Amino acid sequence: MTNYKEKDLENFIESYLLENHAYIKRTNENYDKNLCLDVELFENFLQATQSVALEELKKRCGQNYKKELFNRIFSQIKTKGIVKVLQSYVEIKGIKIYLAFSKPNTSANEESVKKYEQNTLSIIRQLHYSTQNKNSLDMVIFLNGLPLITIELKSHFTGQNVFHAIDQYKKDRNPKEAIFSLTIVHFALDNDLCYMSTKLDQDATTFLPFNLGLNNGSGKIGLANGAGNPPSDGIKTAYLWEKIFKKDTLLNLFFNFVQVVKKKNEEIIIFPRYHQFDVVEKLLAHAKENGTGQRYLIQHSAGSGKSNSISWLAHNLVSLHRLEKNIFDSIIVVTDRKVLDRQIRENVKSFSQKTKDLVEAITHGSKQLKNALEEGKKIIITTIQKFPFILDEIKTLKSKTFAIIIDEAHSSQSGSNAQKMAEVIRSKSYDENQNLDDEILEIIKNKKLQSNASYFAFTATPKPKTLEMFGMPCDVNGEQMFIPFHLYSMKQAIEEGFILDVLKGYTTYKSYYKLISCTNDNPKYDKKRANAKLKAYVQNNIKTIEQKSQIMCEHFFQNSFKKINGKAKAMVVTSSRENAVKYYLVFREYLRKNYPHFKAIVAFSGEVNLEGEIYSESGLNGFSENALKDEFKKNEYRFLIVAEKYQTGFDEPLLHTMYVDKALSGVSAVQTLSRLNRTCKNKENTFVLDFANTHEDIAKSFSVFYEQTYLSEATDDNRIFDLKANLNEYEIYTQEEIDDFTNAILKNEKENVIHSKLDTMLTRFDQKSDDEKLDFYNKARTYLKEYSFLAQILPYEDIELEKLYILLKKLTSKIILPKPEDLAKGILDNVDFDSYRLQLDKTQDIILQGNGELKPSFADGSSKSAEAELEELSNIIKDFNNKYANIDFNESDKIAKILYDIKDDIAKNEEIRETFNKSGMQNSRIRFDEILEDKIQDLLNLNLELFKQFTQNNDFKDKIANTMFNMIYENAK
Question: 189, 359, 351, 173: which is closest to 269 by C-alpha?
């Protein structure tokens, strides 16, 4: 029986490389430890590719030219780093020496092809690399004699695994050894798993997974998802030597993927993670084979390194050729953020060293974009808002081809922006004699994804329309479905440790509140609206917010504060701008009194009018919106209170805790909670405390995007025709009027003509009932939304659909809907709090099942308002309390409510406030006790037991009075 050992795996890998990839077998005798070089192979490469340069160098340096050559090379490597030297050249006395040659984009230049073919890959096993000890590396791969890859491998059959190899790198490999200044990447592997690192730093060394993932990047329905490698016919990690160590692949990685970036004043080498290299390679291969006119959906989770993937893709698309010709004339990177994604912009520029001067970030509008295209910029970076501009300005676009890379495709490509984008890039010819129908056909064609462009759409959370527009159609049991071209799932990202699981230990609170009537009458109100107002009244009440704020602050400082070595921060997610301001003001005061060294920041748009006071974000924070991200990094700021801001695209790794007081669902839930998932040093977990959602709510939202997301059926285009027919039934317009109006629009008739035609239709609209008006308006808006999407993907052009679209777009803009009567008006004047309590619901990990099926979203727009159900106030309060007060409020809850009311009443008393301001504490206390005595008399009717305690128990009375006085006096001062 064979006793497999580590050397058997070494033999297997080496044999494969020698037999299949033309590697040269070398030994320790060929390696110069002082030069860290296989001198013979290096000199052979130089002689084969640069003999003329060597002869000239010999003339300029004399017989010691080799010594000068080696000294210069290694001094440059020490100064610039191996990557920069390898990707460029070393200049010695005016002569350029190349250490390797990249593969040319085409075979047109025979000399370049020959030089590339002269690149030599070799391998040494058990390399004794050190002059200080006898340590050896299991395997080292050389390029032209330069050691660029080290490998430590382990075999399961010897009782060891990849993590023993990682420990060996950390504990037995001194990063100061000369060889490690030349090597680019270090692989640790066993039979099943592979990890890699670009920098050895003893115990601080970081090894990242370099595995296929269980689905190997495929979006195919039914495949397992997660970290690791899928089952195979051989060794699971064979892709490393079979694919990655292949000459073309390895040279491509070294020249087109490996990058040097500066982080915190230190240059580090970036080597792509497997899924990043895999998605770019697969996209390039498909684009090369199929040319333009393709659509690709890339579903990559948060933490996938999407900015780097986009940058590598853009850089490589520039040089992609087919039949000796560039496939794409320009690469356009589009983000949907109004503030241009700085990270993508900087990454693309730094990743495109060869084409750096051909990269243009559009920050000043359409004129700059126009100039960039006309100047031949190869990579153009812009926002979806800046991309559309007048097609006539760009005459050179007619015959150009484009690769359009879309960041966050779920929100940027479903409406008018996408149509304008298509219009800009479409190869188009004009005919002055075309008739109305021809012109409309031209408009429809402009809306479609164009054949002279390919679209590469990246998102972590694809919506149904995103999948249908960019996903790959596939047949499953006779049904057409849509799947991503490439998938790196949330599950895999969590299991590989690139993001944290924000659903672990998810904690929810339940709110219980009881209301009472404060009127002797019993008026009737619309029950549904009344309940909504009552719930909002409780949730937005300042006392509710004060209680929640106290829970948040105390939880943070007792539990989260020490996380991330005492650097942890928290986000508070509120339901409205008004509540964001309320929370901020409460937090500011609470922190001032209890944790004066720390502060909160608030983020909301525009201005908020709260009880006659106008608040703005910058006014409350004391600095501009542009400075917020940098300010929040400061140690004193621990809370970021937000309302519809910073819930997407905000990456702050120190965010550890989130307090949620807002209903979340779908993509919004995933994006909001994912603000916590970024990793950093010493960040081991996250925490969510949720006042507004249940575990089941959040699980439902996340499950769709946890593993694979797919669209189970295509949109039924018959439904847009049904909706068109349904709109016609309202008889707001005739077919003749649609034709006439469209003709007027396309002929650019004067505005008074357009308004006159619309007003005729609005006269009929005004004669309809309120329900009919609302129903028509909502269906018209639905038509506009759905047709905007369908026009881009339908394989045919329908002129009548487009005509109606043109009409409805103008008509709906003039419709003013009647305001429904508010049959719950005034109810808040007739109710008051009786009791309120927050109670911990549960702390529990949310376990996801990964149900990623989506259906096309096509609403018909119907929205008939339900008839108001009038109910007496007493019954409304009773039903409300039955729903939200289903807890036994004990006497202490009610007593606390009464005492807080007394305290608030005294604090508002003008006489006591004046006494506090003008007199000392002693005089203030005397007047306080007098007013309190009067208030105690009122207790006789409110709570007899409490009255007895005040009048018969002096210790109780003194304790309450002292506490109440101190609270009021401190606030007054």
Answer: 351
> Distance between CA atoms of 13 and 881, rounded to whole angstroms?
72
Give the C-alpha separation, 378 to 401, whole Å.
11
Q: How many Å apart are CA 877 and CA 897, to the nearest integer?
A: 19
Length in residues, the chain: 973
Beta bridge partners, 474, equal 481
Q: Which residues contact 237 (CB under 8 A, 6 or more apart)?
A: 189, 190, 191, 192, 193, 194, 211, 229
Read off the pLDDT of residues 434-470 as tens digits, 9 standing for 90 and up.
566 777 777 777 777 778 889 999 999 998 988 998 9
CB 63 within 8 A of CB 147: no
| Predicted TM-score (pTM) of this structure | 0.84
Q: Bridge-partner residues for 185, per DSSP?
A: 149
Secondary structure (DSSP) of 340-381: --HHHHHHHHHH-STTGGGEEE--S-HHHHHHHHHTT-SEEE
Q: Which amino acid belongs to residue 447?
A: K
Strand-by-strand arrangement of the 687-690 sheet? 599-603, 637-642, 569-574, 655-661, 687-690, 506-517, 831-844
Q: Look at residue 261 and tell me whether its pLDDT is greater than 90.
A: no
CA 657 to CA 673: how far, in whole Å? 10
Burial of 969 (0-12, 13-18, 19+ CB in 10 A): middle
Residue found under tokens 């007199």: 919
Residue written as tokens 């129908």?
A: 437
pLDDT tens across 839-850, in order? Answer: 778 889 989 887
More confident residue, 220 or 870: 220
- The answer to whether the CB of 483 falls within 8 A of the CB of 293 is no
Closest CA to 753 of 763, 765, 743: 743
